[in-house]
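Exercise 7 asks you to align residues with C-alpha cells for two separate proteins.
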Amino acid sequence: MKIENIGENILKKAKILGAEEIEVYIERVKRFEVNVRKGEIEFLRQSIQKGLGLRIFNGKCLGFSYTSDLSNEAVEETIKQAIALTKITESKPWNGLPDFEEGNPSDLDLYDSSYSTIQNSEKISLAKRVEEIAMKLDKRITNSEGGFFEDSEREIGIFNSKGISRTFRSTSFSFGVSVIAGEGENMQGGSWASSKRFFNELENAEEIAREAVKRAIEKLGPKPVPTKRVPVIFERYASNMFWLGILISLNGDSAFRKTTFLSDYLNSPIASPLITIIDNPTIPRFIGSAPIDGEGKITRINKIIENGVLKMFFYDSITARKAGVKVNTISRRGGYNSLPSAGYLNIIVENGNTDFEKLIDVKEGFLCKGLRGFGTDSTTGNFSVGASGFWIENGSISFPVDGITLGGSALEILKNIDALGNDLDMRGNINSPSFRVSEMTVGGRRI
C-alpha cells in the first residue's frame, strides 16, 4: 500500500478512537553497510526498517507512541496507547500541531532511481578498492582501520489532522577509508570519505585514498610548543566542529529558559561582521537537503547570523509557542520512534574572500586541522578543546603539532575572527570555509 494511503487511514482511525489533534509519521528505510580491513569483510549488514510514530494532542495533553508493526491490529493498539498517555500527561498551553501552511514542497531531486540496480558486489568492491589504493600509495602507510561503503533508501510521510499530507523519497551513498602512517614509534591516523545523493556522483576511489593518506602522513613527527597566545587558523573541515558547539547554543528552548550563554543576544552582534550563517536545506541533490522538516513543514532558507548579528534561535512549533515567538520553525527527527525537536538541517557559513595563503600569513600561529570535540560549553560560553594541526612561522607551515589545548571565550573567538577564507567545500550538513582568529590561547607544554 502507498504510504499516503496508510497515513490517511491511520488519521481516520485515530479520529474514530477519540483523538483530537493527530500527527502520523511513517518511515521506510532500506540500508546497506560494509566494512573491510586488509581486503577482508569485517562487517556486513543489509536491513529494511519501517515504522509509525504517532503524536496525539487531547486537551493540550501530549501522547506519543510508536511501532514497527504496521498491521491493522498493531496500529490500533499504538493509537490507543497514545490516547491513553494524553490522559496522564500534563496539559500545557503551547502543546499542539504546527499551523497549516499552503504550498507544495519543491522537488529537490534527492532520489537516485538506480538505487535498486546497484549490486552489493560493486559496493563491497569499492570499499576494498579504496583501502587497497591507500595502502599502496606510500611506504609510510603501515596499517589500515578499514574501508567502508554504506547507503540508504528512505521514504518519509507526514500527515496530520490540520491538513498536512506530504511525502518524499531520498537516497544517500557514502564510502571512505582510514589508514595509519608510521615512522619509528610515531603513528598517526588519517581518513577521508565522500557522501552524495547519487551513486555516480561519488568522488573516485583514488581521490579519497590520496586525501586519507595525505592527512595521516602530514601529521608524522609532531613537536611540542609552549603555551602562548597566537593567531589560530581553523581549516575548513576542522571548523565544522567549532560551529557545531555554537549551533547547539542556539537552541530556542534553552534561550527561553536562559540556559545558553547566547540567551540575551538576539538581534545583537555575537561574531565578526565577516560571518553570515544560513540554514539552506533547499539545495537540489545535496546530502543535507530535505523538502520538508520533521513536522511536515515546507523547508526554506533561514538566516541564523547576518554580518555577525544573531538573527534567530532554533525552534520547533511547540518551543516557539512556549517562547511566544513567531519565526520560521525548523524541526528535526531522528526517526519514527522519536519526537520532533528544534534544530537545523543544512548549515552554510558563507564564503569569504581571503586565499588560504593569506590566512596563514602570520609571524607565528597555529593551523588547526582537527578538534577532539566541539569545545563550547553552551551554558557558560567557555571554550576548551584538544586540537592537532601545524605550527606556522613567517607565513609558512613549519611542523606538525599534537596534544595541545585551545581555550578562551566562545564570544571572544567569534568576535575576533579577522579573516574568512574563500575555500568553502560543501560536504555535509555543516559547511564552512577556513577562518582566522586574531589571537587565542594555545595550551602546550614546557619545552
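Second protein for Exercise 7:
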Amino acid sequence: MGNMKRIIYSLRPAVVAVALAAGALAGSAIAADEIVLKNGSRILGTVTGVRDGVVTVDTEFAGTLKVKQDQVESLSSGEPIVLKLADGTVVEESSLRVEGETLLLAADSAPVATYPLAELAITNPQPWELGQGYRWTGQVSLALEMQRGNTDTDELDYGIESIWRSLEDRYTLRFDGEDDEANGIKNAENWTALGKYDRFLEGPLYWGVNASAEHDKFSDLDLRYYVGPYIGRQFHERPLLTLSAEVGGVYVDEDYIVAEDQDYLGMNWSVDATSNYISEDSQLYLKHTGIWNLDQTEDIILNLTLGLSFPLLFNIDGAAEILLEYDSGLPPEVESVDQTYRFRVGYSW
C-alpha cells in the first residue's frame, strides 16, 4: 500500500503539468480568432487586418493567409479594432464580428447596427486615411555601367520620385536623368523634371495641374517645358491592378540648340498602371505620356516605360526597364525614336 501511495504522489506533478498544458491549449483555441468561409472551411488564428478586399490572418499551421473578403461567411476577433467603411464612416469596436456576411456593430457612434461585409473598407486605418496629414512615399534609384577594354564606357541613369497623398489631394515630384560617355567623350546628356498637383473629387475622378521641363543635348533639345490642367480618373486601385488615366491641355515652349524654337498649344495625356500579378512582392508597371501639337498636328511626342520591379533586401529593390521615346518634331538628322534598356537598383520608402 505504501508503495502505491508513493507512486501516486510521484505521478501528481506530471498529471498537473498535463492538465495545465491541456488547459493552455484549450484556452488558446478558445481565444483564437475564427473565420468561416462560404465553402464551410474554418480558419483559426489572429486576424491582422482587412484591406483592399482581403482579410489577412496569421495561423500556426500555415503562416500568414490572405482570404478574399467576399468569401467570408462569418468572422470573430476579440481584439479592439478601428473600422473604416466604404462611405467614410469610422467606428471603434471592442471586437470584430461578422455573421452571415453581415458586419455587426455595437459602438454607439455607429449610424446603424449592421452593414454588409462588402462595405468594410479598412481595419485600423493609417492617420492619413482618417484625414490626418499626408502619406509620404518615394524612391531613389541608380543604374550604373562601367566597361573597360577596346571601348571605355561609363553610363549613369538616376531618378528620384516623391509623392505626398491625403484624402483630398496629392503632390508628385519626379526627376530623371542620364549621363553617358564613351572613350571620354560624352554621348548622352538628358534630364526630365515633373511636378503635379491632384485634387480628388467625388468617386474616381480628380483634376490637376502639371508642369514639366526637359533637356536632351544630343537630340538638339536645349529646353522644353510645358504647363497645363487636366482631368483624371482612377479606374482601378487594388494590388492586382491599379489603373489611372489623365487628359488635358498644355502650353508648350521648345528651345532647340540648332533648330528653330517654337511654342504651341497642345493636348497631353498620361496612363499609369501597376500589377502584382506575378507575385505579391513584385510589380509590373507601365507609364505613358503623350503631347500632341495642335498647331502642327503631325507633331507628336510619346514616352513609354515598361518595367518589372522586385525586392532585393529590406527597402531596396531592383527593376528591369524598357524606355521608348518618340518625337516626330526633331530635326531630320536626329533619330525620332530613342530606346533604352536598363537594370536599376532603388531604395523605396
